[in-house]
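Methods, example record. To illustrate the input and output format used throughout this study, we show the complete record for Bacteriophage phiJL001 Gp84 C-terminal domain-containing protein. The sequence lines were provided to the predictor; the line carrying structure tokens was produced by it.
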Amino acid sequence: MSGLLAHMGTGVTTTCRCWALTRRDGVVMGFTDHDRALAFEGVAFRPDTGLSALAVQQSTGLSVDNTEALGALSDAAIREADIEAGRYDGAELRAWLVNWQDVAARALIFAGTIGELRRAGGAFEAELRGLTDALNVSLGRVYQKSCSAVLGDRDCTFDLDTPGYVSERPAEVVEETRVFRFGEVGGFEEDWFRHGVIRVLSGAATGLIGLIKRDRVEGMGRVIELWQPLGAQVVAGDALRIEAGCDKRMSTCQFKFDNLLNFQGFPDIPGDDWTITDPTKSPALDGGSRR
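The corresponding predicted structure is encoded as:
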């Protein structure tokens, strides 16, 4: 930072902007608006991507910093198919102001995530949200009958790699990237995977996850249907990981997963009907007189 300030103080500057984008699947991409490649912090910043940024809006306090990035869709950089598949949703992004003659003289001017991403006419426009955007997320417990945990998270603690709860197998017949048909999935009763997920481990859709809507037996085969199509093609032979599902009920937690001690719901809280009931319209609730 001090090196960049000294450079800016000379009155004649050689600065550019660099962006490092880290997708949730671990892929790291570097861009710069300079006319030649730069490299620092283990990232190569490419000049041939057509990426540029608008002014960064920054403020004091807890207001969310925001800006936008514009660029051209390219098979060598950001592809429309990857945007459609959701690979850039929630990706982390850092931006620097850099002295391109001495990349050690640089300053981080923005850090955050990609919000809304739009594409049209061979180009894309991405909304960038600052780190304080995370403060808009609601925190705390919700008092509800069903479990509030996600199967396998730190509140649930259930190990999904436990034998009998996961099936890893190649795709066989895939319809509209939403319906998966298998010749046989032995050892799992019908609806075992309902409310679970399919993770794609190889092929064009590697890293994508689909939520399971139905799991049924048809003849000698098995049909697993997703709520929504995956964002990329899955073909026969692609490796899949199918994980058992949880419908958030206490009985499921107890008998299907043997995990009742970690159940995060409140099944004994009276419902809304009980709270508005009066003695003249219901049987005695506590033994008291109704006259």
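Annotations derived from this record:
The chain has a mean pLDDT of 81.
The chain has two domains: 2-135, 166-243.
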